[in-house]
Amino acid sequence: VYPVLVLLSVLAGAGLVVALFRALRSEALGPVRWAKAGEVLLVLVWPVLVAASDVQYNLTFIQAQGRYLFPGLGGIGLFFMLGLSRLAGPRLSPLILALATILLALFSAVLLKTVVIPAWK
């Protein structure tokens, strides 16, 4: 399972880099572009702050736990889906986003039934 998730994450990261380069090469200068840049910056800052606080906490108390990253999942998920949609292109992005959402929801349900619930019995 992990190699597939790593591949999906690498693809999303590559799509995010492509989206960043397209945005920087865009010739549409003006207030709309800067407003969009501000929105993206605000969404980017939150997961970075959460990750920085997690690193600071783990440098103070040695206990590596991923649950401290949960508050940043909104921004992480948004950039993940943005990367996948930009990599797919404008025609395929709705299909890719719907497919990714359905597959990840199904993956979560299967893991809940096969791993999480049996662990608590």
In short:
The protein is mainly α.
Structure report:
The radius of gyration is 17 Å and the shape is flat. It is built from four helices and no strands. The chain is mainly α. Helix 1 crosses helix 3 (73-88) and helix 3 (73-88) packs across helix 4 (93-119). Helices cover 80% and strands 0% of the residues. The longest helix has 30 residues, at 31-60.
State the main characteristics.
121 residues, flat, mainly alpha
Tell me the helix content: over 70%
Q: How much is the radius of gyration in Å? A: 17 Å
Q: Could you give the distance between the termini?
A: 24 Å
State the total count of DSSP E strands.
0
The H/E string reads HHHH
Strand content: under 5%
Question: Which outline best applies?
Answer: flat
Helix/strand class = mainly alpha
Mean pLDDT: 83
Could you describe the largest sheet, including whether it forms a barrel? none
Query: Low-confidence parts, pLDDT < 50 over ≥5 residues?
Result: none
The oligomeric status of these chains comes to single chain
Number of helices: 4
